[in-house]
Amino acid sequence: MKKFLALLCLGLVVPMVPAQETNEVEQLKQQMLQMQENFEKERNEDRKLIQSLSQKVDELLQQKQVQAAVTSAPPATAEASAGTVTQEQVKELNEKVDSVVEAQTKVRPSEFNPAIGLVGETVFSYRSKGSDQTGSDRAGGFDVNQRSVELNVSASVDPFAKGYAVINAAADARTGEASLGVEEAALQTTSLPANLELKAGRFFGEFGKLAYIHDHELPFVNRPLALDQYIGGESRTDGAQLSWLPPLPHYFSLTAGFGVGFGGDSPLNNPGAYRALSGFNYYGRASTYFDVTPNIQLETGLSGLINPSTHDRGGVLVQPNGSTLTEHERRVAGLDLKLSYVPLRNNQFQRLDWGTEVLYSDSRYLADPDGSLDPANSAPGLSGDEFQKSIGSIGLYSYATYKWSRQWSGGFLFDYVQNAQNHNDETFAYSPYLTWAMSHWNQVRLQYTHTDHNAVSGLKSDDAIYLQWAWIIGAHSHGWQQR
Fold first, then answer.
1. Which residues contact 242 (CB under 8 A, 6 or more apart)?
2. What percent of the chain has pLDDT over 90?
3. Residue 242 needs a FRET pair 20 to 30 A away by CA distance; which of 75, 322, 328, 386 works?
């Protein structure tokens, strides 16, 4: 009787093992089906993994069916098989399911939220002459200038466009108070056909090599004199810009745009004026890139800007001799060139860049002559006490930067510019500089600048020492790049 009861219990227990494992597999299969419904729009890699797991579940079910069909096998053999093979497979399946669930529930901060970054820039300086002698908007002697605190926000709007904004708080040169302003706020397409890209809003128009980048991105402390004189600093504009990459075997880009204002100057001094299409600024740039050798790169570009009717940009411009000029038409052309030595095996520790840009300004002015200007240049239709005068001026900058380690680099900048209102007024500047990049987010630059003026402007030559400390917190799309 005892033997009969023992055999009966053994017969009841053995079938429960595969039944229990079958229920476990069924639960896993239900979990996989539910995951397929919840995450059917997720990444293709996750879908492939789910399909692979489902296939394994089906294979396990088939194995169970085969085991249930083999009734002639001794109970001990079935139990051993279930204990050594099936449990390991179920455990492996559980681990993979858990990893998929964990991956799907992870939060991706940059996927739905905008990238936000903050940039600060402080410039400590000493100048040997006062601002009344140098024409600078900063005081002579010792000075500290919190030149900018810049907030950057950028994100994808949808699959077809991305948006970004740059909010800048710059300190006033006279009061030291920071004024908050929108430096950039633009929408940029990402999926137009035929390699086209459209940008609209407030942005830095693509002119030359350094005019459309921010001050803290420059390879030296201050913006070149020619860009300040002819562009007005950064090439900010409110308008639209279209770029095109032609289907060529090497890089070639064409850009054209228009906007209200171009640069740091006011686009319209008379609030009641009427602006026609001639009041807009129209600009364009053609640029290309070549690998001269595996270690040498060449970039070059040609830019142009025209504003047929400037609406008195800058107001009445008083000259040193007492005469006045009022800008009537603005025309600027530029040619830029950059040659870089970037060794393939050691480019994080060694690099040499040489960049040059030449600008030509040929603006037209309405003048009130006092005898120093030639009335023969008078334009038809103007009254006898004013005439139109075209003034051609040239400016250029050239620099070389050598990087000899991951953190250290140094270089030299040469500046030359003729005044846009009087090409006889010339300025030269010579600036050696040394940069210590502690990291990509923190760098210090030391620069010495000697500036020479000729006697036409009445300004005095001076010497200056600058110590620039710039840092980045968070995301920053345009960063510190090799320019």
1. 196, 197, 198, 199, 255, 256, 257
2. 45
3. 328
Q: Is the pLDDT of residue 298 over 90?
A: yes
**Is 340 found in the same domain as 219?**
yes
**Count of domains observed in the chain:** 2
pLDDT of 35 > 50? The answer is yes
Q: What is the CATH number of the domain that holds 128?
A: 2.40.160.10
Amino acid at 433: Y
**Contact, 391 vs 363, CB < 8 A?**
yes
Q: How confident is the model at residue 169 (pLDDT cuts 50, 70, 90)?
A: confident
Q: 438, 470 in Cβ contact below 8 A?
A: no
Structure tokens at 352: 């040499």
Specify the amino acid at residue 402: Y
- How many other CB atoms are there within 10 angstroms of residue 388's CB atom? 16
* Residues 6 or more apart whose Cβ sits within 8 Å of residue 140: 127, 128, 129, 130, 131, 133, 134, 462
Both tokens of 178, joined, read 């920071």
Question: Is pLDDT above 80 for 323?
Answer: no
Between 44 and 394, the higher pLDDT residue = 394
Token pair, residue 364, equals 């037209």
Which range of residues forms the domain containing residue 164?
116-474
